[in-house]
Amino acid sequence: MTNHDFGLIGLAVMGQNLVLNVESRGFRVAVFNRTGSVTREFVAAHPGKAMFGATTLEEFVGSLARPRKIMIMVKAGAAVDAVIDSLVPLLDKDDIVIDGGNSLYTDTERRDERLRGLGLRFIGAGVSGGEEGARKGPAIMPGGPASTWEVMRPIFEAIAARAEGEPCVTHIGPGGSGHYVKMIHNGIEYGDMQLICEAYHLFKSAGFSASELAEVFTAWNDGDLESYLIQITAEIFRQTDPETGLPLVDLILDAAGQKGTGKWTLQSAIDNGVVISTIHAAVEARILSSMKERRVAASRIFDRPAESITARDKAALVGMVHDALYASKIVSYAQGLDLIATMSREKGWNLDLSRIAAIWRGGCIIRAKFLNPITEAYRADPSLENLMFAPFFRDALNRSQQRWREVVSMAALAGIPVPSFAASLAYYDSFRSAVLPANLLQAQRDFFGAHTYERTDRPRGEWFHTRWPEVAD
Ligand code: 6PG
């Protein structure tokens, strides 16, 4: 049979769920996995599906209608290149290869160039939503030529999640832009997760039980923090360990893992001169958490502050932390979107931030009600310089700032680390400060290195140097 509409290579959980999703939308699919037994077992476990399990790559490629549409769902990095290497000799002109993993966007650009040179077409598509999203409808962020997107569009739109009636997929832009936007999605995901963890840390320190925490997060999921991550957090607090009967969360080791997309986001921010301090703090919080033994040793030798968080009024604490979380989240998204906009200008990608925010409203890990006003803000002003300038978010920050400050200072006094709350607040305060102390910094640079400075009483672009006094060693 040579009439399959879609082929998928890599039958790990994401690949399996994605291909079941494609099949369920009426497409005939072919699958291939390097370990043949995985293919056989997968096909056998789903009888009656329009699904062909190929035993060789040749058979797989031969089973697809042309132009072939082949999605690779393998671990990012060398495995993607290995699959492409073995596919290339078997493909014909205009066949389409889609990498649906969390690939680094520069790898995507390299692969795109290579395949284009061979007369093939390549799409680097970020896919978000985890296992369940892949099966029921993920958010998809495809990057590549618009003409290739048009060929893939019917399948992508059929399998994507929907938000406000629109599919959560759009042509992001050329080259590596799809994977780039997915990378920033993940950076923002790190920020959201860390902010939630900091709220949890404060509540836990104030003596909230797991069931009280579940109630708080359930209530928050009915308000302006409504989101997938808040929802699953409430569920996590409800989960008890079957062996001990204790809340499962209390038995999970506090050492976080990470696979690299957060780190890449920071590297790109540094390269582009964009501040993403909330996400930065979130990545570093994971690193510090992973140093469990060192932290345990340090906890024995350093003094604790005299103060602790006592929640005489738990409801008031919940309200304060809510505002700190909401305001920090605004800052985090403002930073992440700033990075996308900067990179888009740098690379000439011409990315549409309102479309990107719109497709993040469903299917993906950061899906949230919060993305509606973000979509609206960029629709109203496509050249919006920073999300915080949008009236909706400006007002929210003005409303939240007092309690946000109280939370950060209360945490500092009680010795509870809130790196992402604090980094967001410091960013906000720097951002809204007409005057910062960098005049002194410029003087220091000029003092020791004759780096020159501009003056407040002269036009920008005129540079001055002072003969500073010599100092004794
Ligand atoms: C998603 C997720 C997914 C994955 C990340 C997280 O959008 O579906 O972001 O891609 O969970 O890779 O990775 P780490 O937390 O392990 O870095």
What does this structure look like?
With 473 residues, this protein is α/β, with parallel strands linked by helices. The chain has three domains: 6-175, Rossmann fold (3-Layer(aba) Sandwich); 182-431, N-(1-d-carboxylethyl)-l-norvaline Dehydrogenase, domain 2 (Orthogonal Bundle); 436-473, 6-Phosphogluconate Dehydrogenase, domain 3 (Single alpha-helices involved in coiled-coils or other helix-helix interfaces). The protein has helices at 13-24, 36-45, 57-62, 78-87, 105-117, 130-136, 146-159, 177-205, 210-220, 228-238, 261-272, 277-290, 292-301, 314-347, 353-359, 371-380, 391-414, 419-431, 438-449; strands spanning 6-9, 29-32, 51-53, 69-72, 96-99, 121-128, 139-143, 162-163, 166-167. The strands form two sheets. The protein has a seven-stranded mixed beta sheet with strand order 3-2-1-4-5-6-7, sandwiched between helices. Strands 8-9 form a two-stranded antiparallel ribbon. Strand 2 (29-32), helix 2 and strand 3 form a beta-alpha-beta unit.
Q: What's the count of strands?
A: 9
Strand order of the largest sheet: 3-2-1-4-5-6-7
Helix/strand order = EHEHEHEHEHEHEHEEHHHHHHHHHHHH
Q: What is the strand content?
A: 5-15%
The dominant shape is globular
- N-C termini distance: 84 Å
Structural class: alpha/beta
